[in-house]
Write a structure and sequence with these properties.
alpha/beta, Rossmann fold, Nucleotidyltransferase, domain 5, 2 domains, ten-stranded mixed sheet, seven-stranded mixed sheet, 14 helices, disordered C terminus
C-alpha cells in the first residue's frame, strides 16, 4: 500500500472535489466514484497545519454497522500513517498535534442531540441521501464554527436514491434538475443566501452568502476500481442500475421501470425441481364485515415458484378475494393440491398479531413445511432482486390463464392499484435465492452495496 503522503486523488472529479474551498459541496453520482475516500482525505486536510486541538472534524454514516464496515475500517488504512491513534470507545482519531476526527452515526432523528455542545470545522456525510434534511442542516450549520480562522467545510457524498433523495435533489437542484430556474455546470460554485427559510442564489461577495457546489462522479472516473465491481452494477434492477451505475438523479420507481413483458419467456412446463415454494401475500382484510364494506379490497395472492440452476420458473398464481376464513381455507386447500414437497411461505405482518396469526396457520397446515417470512422492507426494496433477475431473463412463466393478469400487475408496479401478485413474486424469489430452502424463519434483507476505493473495491 502506498504511503498516504504519496496518495493522489483520481484525475478529474475527485481532484476537483478535493480542491474546493467553498462552504458546502456534494460529491456524487454512480457507485465506485471514490466518494468515501474523498471524505476521509478531505477531513484531514488541516491535520499537521498548526491548528492543534482547535481542529475537529466529524464523519457520519446513518447507522453504526455502516460506519464500522466503511469509514472506520477504511480510516485504519490511512490515519495511523499520519500518526493518528484511534479510541474505539469514543470512536475518535487523535493526531500528534491534537487534531481530532470523530466517527459517528445518526440512526434516529434525535441522535443529533449528542452533538449539541460540539464544535466542528469539517462535517462529512457519507451517503447523505440516507440522512434526513433536519440532521444535515443541524450538524452542517449549527455545529460548525471556528475561532481560529480555520475554514468551515460541509461535505457530502452519495448516490441517487435513498429516503433522502428528494431533499438532496432540491438542495442541489441547480446542478441536478434541468427544470431549475438557476442552472450550473458540474463543478461550478454558486453563492447562496438564505432568505426567510428559502435559498436564494446571489452574486459572489453578497453579505451572509456562502458557496455551494456539486461535483458528479462516475465509476469510470476511478482507475482503482475493480472491473468486477463495475460489471456487477449491470446486474442490478433497472432503476437501481441507472442510479448506481449511471448516476441518474432523474429516474424514480415508476410504471414499467421494474418489469416489462419482454423480460419473461413463456414455457409449457417447469423442469423437475427440489426447490419449490408457494408464497402467499394475504390481503389485510380484517373482520368479514369490514372486508365487505371495502369498495376495492385487496387480493390474496399465492405464487408457486421453483428454481432450476440459475433460472426461476413461476408455475402458477392463485389470485382471489375473500374473508379471513375463506383465505385460510383456500390456502390449506391449495397446499394439499401442491403436495407436501412444496414449502408454504407466509408473509408475516409485524407485531404480536402477525405472530399469532402465523401460529394459527401452522396449526391448520399441520404436516406441511410452513415458514413465515417477516416483511421488514418496503415493497419496492423487496421487488428489486427479482426485478434484476427478470431483467437478465432468468425468470420464466409457465403458460396459464393467469399470465396476462400477472404481467399487467407487474408492468403497473409500483403505481398500480394492486400489487399483491408482485409481493408474492418478490417473496417467492427471495425465499429461493439461497441454495437450499431455509429450515427456520429467515430474515431477508439487502446488503448495501459498498462504495469505496478501499479494500474490496481495489485498495489505495
Amino acid at each position: 500500500m502506498p504511503h498516504p503522503e504519496d496518495w493522489r486523488p483520481n484525475p478529474g472529479p475527485q481532484t476537483r472535489f478535493l480542491s474546493l474551498t467553498c462552504r458546502e459541496a456534494l460529491y456524487g453520482g454512480s457507485a465506485g466514484g471514490g466518494k468515501s475516500a474523498a471524505l476521509l482525505v478531505d477531513a484531514i486536510r488541516y491535520v499537521g497545519k498548526g491548528y492543534g486541538p482547535a481542529y475537529k472534524a466529524l464523519l457520519l454514516r446513518r447507522t453504526y454497522p455502516e460506519l464500522e464496515r466503511s469509514l472506520i475500517q477504511e480510516s485504519r488504512l490511512l490515519y495511523p500513517r499520519l500518526g493518528g491513534r484511534y479510541n474505539g470507545t469514543l470512536h475518535v482519531w487523535t493526531f500528534p498535534q491534537g487534531e481530532t476526527v470523530w466517527m459517528s452515526h445518526l440512526q434516529q432523528e434525535s441522535d443529533v442531540a449528542a452533538h449539541q455542545s460540539a464544535e466542528y470545522q469539517f462535517v462529512g456525510f457519507d451517503e447523505v441521501t440516507h440522512f434526513t434534511e433536519k440532521q444535515y442542516l443541524y450538524l452542517g450549520f449549527s455545529r460548525m464554527r471556528s475561532s481560529h480562522g480555520i475554514p468551515l467545510r460541509l461535505r457530502a457524498g452519495t448516490n441517487p436514491g435513498g429516503d433522502g433523495h428528494d431533499w438532496v435533489f432540491r438542495r442541489f437542484g441547480a446542478w441536478l434538475d434541468p427544470e431549475s430556474k438557476t442552472t450550473a455546470e458540474p463543478g461550478q460554485v454558486l453563492y447562496v443566501r438564505n432568505v426567510e427559510g428559502k435559498d436564494e442564489y446571489v452574486p459572489r461577495g453578497t453579505p451572509e452568502s456562502f458557496g455551494r457546489c456539486f461535483v458528479p462522479a462516475r465509476v469510470t472516473d476511478n482507475p482503482r476500481i475493480s472491473p468486477d465491481y463495475a460489471a456487477g452494477l449491470s446486474m442490478l434492477d433497472p432503476v437501481t442500475r441507472a442510479q448506481l451505475r449511471d448516476g441518474d438523479w432523474l429516474i424514480r420507481p415508476g410504471r414499467g421501470l421494474f418489469f416489462k413483458r419482454d423480460m419473461f419467456e413463456t414455457v409449457g412446463h417447469a423442469p423437475e425441481s427440489q426447490q419449490r415454494i408457494r408464497y402467499w401475500d394475504r390481503a389485510g382484510t380484517g373482520e368479514t364485515e369490514a372486508f365487505k364494506r371495502k369498495s376495492d379490497p385487496d387480493f390474496t395472492a399465492g405464487l408457486l415458484m421453483c428454481k432450476v440452476g440459475s433460472i426461476y420458473y413461476v408455475e402458477d398464481v392463485d389470485h382471489f378475494r375473500g374473508s379471513p376464513g375463506e383465505v385460510k381455507a383456500r390456502i390449506v386447500s391449495v397446499a394439499r393440491t401442491d403436495g407436501k414437497s412444496v414449502q408454504v411461505g407466509l408473509e408475516q405482518d409485524p407485531g404480536s398479531a402477525g405472530k399469532f396469526e402465523i401460529a394459527e396457520y401452522v396449526t391448520a397446515l399441520d404436516g406441511f413445511n410452513v415458514r413465515a417470512y417477516p416483511a421488514r422492507q418496503d415493497k419496492v426494496t423487496r421487488a428489486k432482486p427479482v426485478s434484476a433477475q427478470s431483467d437478465q431473463h432468468r425468470v420464466k412463466l409457465v403458460r396459464g390463464s393467469w399470465n396476462n393478469e400477472f404481467l399487467r400487475e407487474l408492468e403497473a408496479f409500483p403505481e398500480g392499484g394492486h400489487d399483491d401478485m408482485v409481493d408474492a413474486f418478490s417473496g417467492a424469489h427471495n425465499a429461493l435465492a439461497v441454495e437450499v430452502l431455509p429450515s427456520s424463519v429467515t430474515r431477508l434483507r439487502a446488503t448495501p452495496q459498498r462504495d469505496t476505493i478501499f479494500g474490496d473495491a481495489g485498495g489505495w
